[in-house]
Design goal:
The protein has 322 residues and is α/β, with parallel strands linked by helices. It contains 9 helices and 13 strands. It starts with a strand and ends with a helix.
Length: 322
């Protein structure tokens, strides 16, 4: 199976390329990695030439503008990059019979739920910020493209192409600064100032390791389970097991890396932001073909800890050289 990955230079994209390279179904050539140079969210007209050149059977669309506050400050650009670009990609893939996996987010929901349950895949989205609205627009546009293609191809001997929307939350892993690396940097600043580290306590989610998310998507591809055989589209909620507050997560990070810094829990209102992050960022996981859930987030954090510790030592060494 020939699989292409957009955003292959990003945190999730790199994990996705690595997981696909290890998958037997991609063959000796492995996946096709489309970095920003090949597929730029601001220049999506290139997608037709890319598809015709590389001829993938599946595209995993990991590229996105994930700067939530940046999206709030420039909602038009957010919609162009996360909504319109996904629509353009979906149209090009569907017309060529190429399956598509669109990576989306918990932020298509407003996070105001107060019954302690995670959002289900069939719950009605209601984004509270520009980032969530732009990602929902991408989901909706891709769904319309594939349902239209499915309707046109119904009854044909060859199955029409399918779309999987994979929503996730609170991604962490090697790459650009994520919550763990930001927490460690903030902890260093707090310790130097002789202060407690202030961390939000009233936002909850399921931290999700990029490696685990990539492996879950590989499982869907390996089992030909992007969507049921009689449907064009399916929504998957792929998140680490368990729920944590930002403060819970920060404590785990500091413990794993050996940072002895006191934490002061504060409300989210303490940190004025351009965006409105959902307080309840919890998704109810959808079953994977194996029936096994993604592992609990603390176990994934333990696996990620060595790279965090290496990063910490590197920062200390860099500081000493300066």
């Amino acid at each position: 199976m020939r699989v292409a990955v957009t955003g292959a230079g990003g945190r999730l994209g790199r994990a996705m390329v690595q997981a696909l390279a290890d998958a037997p179904f991609t063959g000796p050539a492995g996946p096709v990695a489309w970095t920003r140079r090949e597929f730029d969210l601001d220049e999506v007209a290139s997608i037709d030439a890319l598809l015709d050149r590389d001829r993938p059977e599946v595209v995993v669309h990991a590229a996105a503008w994930t700067d939530v506050d940046g999206c709030a400050r420039d909602p038009g650009r957010a919609m162009a990059r996360n909504g319109d670009a996904t629509d353009r990609l979906a149209a090009a893939c569907a017309s060529r019979g190429v399956d598509l996996v669109v990576i989306s987010t918990n932020e298509v929901f407003d996070g105001r739920r107060d019954d302690g349950r995670g959002y289900r895949a069939d719950d009605v989205p209601s984004p509270a910020n520009a980032y969530g609205a732009s990602k929902l627009a991408g989901e909706s546009a891709a769904t319309a493209r594939y349902e239209s293609r499915w309707a046109a191809g119904r009854g044909a001997e060859v199955r029409p192409p399918q779309l999987a929307v994979a929503r996730t939350s609170w991604l962490f892993g090697p790459g650009a600064p994520d919550f763990p690396t930001k927490i460690l940097a903030a902890a260093d600043q707090a310790r130097e100032a002789g202060e407690a580290l202030r961390v939000v306590s009233d936002e909850w989610g399921s931290p999700t390791y990029t490696h685990d998310l990539a492996e879950a998507i590989v499982e869907l591809l390996a089992e030909d389970a992007l969507a049921p055989r009689d449907r064009a589209v399916a929504i998957h909620h792929l998140v680490g097991g368990g729920v944590a507050s930002r403060a819970d997560w920060a404590r785990q990070i500091l413990q794993l890396v050996g940072r002895d810094v006191a934490i002061e829990e504060v409300p989210s209102s303490t940190w004025p932001r351009a965006s409105t992050p959902p307080r309840w960022a919890v998704l109810e996981p959808t079953p994977l073909p194996s029936g096994e859930p993604m592992r609990p987030w603390p176990a994934a954090m333990a696996d990620h800890a060595p790279s965090l510790r290496r990063g910490v030592r590197g920062s200390v060494a860099d500081g000493a050289r300066r």
